[in-house]
Design goal:
With 241 residues, the protein is α/β, with parallel strands linked by helices. It contains 6 helices and 13 strands. The strands form 3 sheets. Strands 4, 5, 6, 7, 8 and 9 form a 6-stranded mixed sheet that branches. Strands 10, 11, 12 and 13 form a 4-stranded mixed sheet that branches. Helix 4 crosses helix 5. The termini are far apart. The model has no long low-confidence stretch (mean pLDDT 95).
């Protein structure tokens, strides 16, 4: 069997064995170009997307993965509606009040809030085919992660390209991930953030605590998956009265 076909078969086998990836409902096209795997198609969730990329990257002899996966949405929305909704949220977010916010569309950039000297950061939002791109600068990794999660929360969002640079540069760590998740859980009205605790090791997040509904349990996990650079989420949250 040629090496290319062997790699495709290996990746497809790994995807089929991951219970969070439903290839029957959401087929993923697997291709190989040299030592790079190309994944293309819709997936059920951000968790499925990240797990698929991780499994593809683990294939023997593979040095990279081209990500063309998009998260399926219940209702498609126009790029303009997505952009407007996200910009409105960014303007309201307390953590980002010092940021200049701009919207890019059709070759034009509109400044929605000018925060002055730029020391609080500048976020530019663009949307193409449901994919949100964030560019500019922020003052911390927590701000970068919060902006990314807000993008993932936006109705109609199919993917997020978080290209925000942290200025001054900051070394990432498990502790930083936990701090960002704490902020996100406090911001999310769909979860009781004070009833959830999180830990992180090697960018794998573990959630503990007790919540009232399965919806709250799942939403807390979705929030963790939405964090930039988080590779895996272990959900040990229990249900209680």
């Amino acid at each position: 069997m040629p090496a290319k076909e062997a790699t495709i078969r290996q990746v497809r086998g790994a995807l089929e064995n991951e219970p969070r990836i439903n290839l029957h409902r959401y087929p993923i096209k697997v291709g190989v170009a040299g030592d790079v795997v190309v994944l293309e198609g819709d997936v059920e969730s951000l968790a499925a997307k990240k797990l698929a990329l991780e499994l593809a990257a683990a294939a023997e002899g593979i040095r990279g993965v081209v990500d063309r996966l998009r998260v399926a949405v219940a209702e498609r929305r126009g790029d303009g509606a997505i952009r407007e909704a996200l910009c409105a949220v960014l303007l309201r977010a307390a953590e980002l009040q010092a940021c200049t916010v701009r919207a890019a569309a059709k070759g034009r950039v509109e400044t929605l809030r000018d925060a002055g000297d730029g020391r609080g950061g500048e976020i530019e939002v663009a949307v193409a085919d449901g994919v949100i791109t964030l560019e500019g600068t922020v003052i911390s990794l927590s701000h970068k992660r919060v902006a990314g999660v807000l993008a993932w929360w936006t109705p109609g969002c199919r993917d997020v390209v978080n290209s925000l640079a942290v200025v001054p540069a900051e070394e990432d760590s498990d502790a930083e991930v936990v701090e960002a998740l704490r902020l996100v859980l406090e911001m999310d009205p769909r979860v009781p953030g004070d009833q959830i605790t999180a830990s992180c090791r090697n960018f794998v997040v573990t959630l503990d605590g007790c919540v009232g509904t399965e919806g709250e349990r799942r939403q807390a996990e979705r929030d963790a998956w939405a964090l930039f650079a988080v590779d895996k989420v272990i959900n040990r949250i229990t249900l209680g009265a």
